[in-house]
Amino acid sequence: MDLAIAIGQGLGLAVAAGFFATAPLAVASSVAALGFADGSLGWADDPLTVALLWVLAGIELAADAIWPGAEAGGRLLRRVVGGGLVFELVAGDELPYVGLAVGAGVAAAVALTLRQIRIRAIRAGGDVRGTAMVEDGTGVATSVAGAVPFVGFLLAGAAAVLFARTRRRDQEKYKGLRVLR
After folding, report:
1. I need a labelling partner for 60 at 20 to 30 A (CA). Which of 19, 76, 121, 181 fits?
2. Residue 163 lies in a domain
3. Are 104 and 85 in contact, with CB atoms under 8 Å apart?
């Protein structure tokens, strides 16, 4: 049962890391400090670490509000690394080192899917700052929901469906075109 809870929390928080890099780490650290998650990163439940991660989440939120298009590649890298770390933080005792790869993969898939959705929203007339704030707000809410033990499986399923739909839509873009050789 502990393995299922750890995987559920890890998946949920890795999905959230695809939206917003530092909020899932702050939530996971808070959950570990409260004793609701047992991970392999012993320093993560330290009160100083919890406070520092929440400050970093606030800084990332403010930076996205002020300059939403900055460092798109850096943002993707932060999200992938955050996904691996957060999965390892909550599931490291049950699945040592596996969480780094699984969390990074889940966060990368979510981040790349959201990138396509954000591009489409902006092309359709959406505001860059508005889409960034919606994405960040959803990331914070998803972080809190992902910390609930079995909600992570639902979040991972929803992310997989969204990834498949976005991928299918990208493939339909070139439907009917032939490659001449």
Report:
1. 121
2. yes
3. no
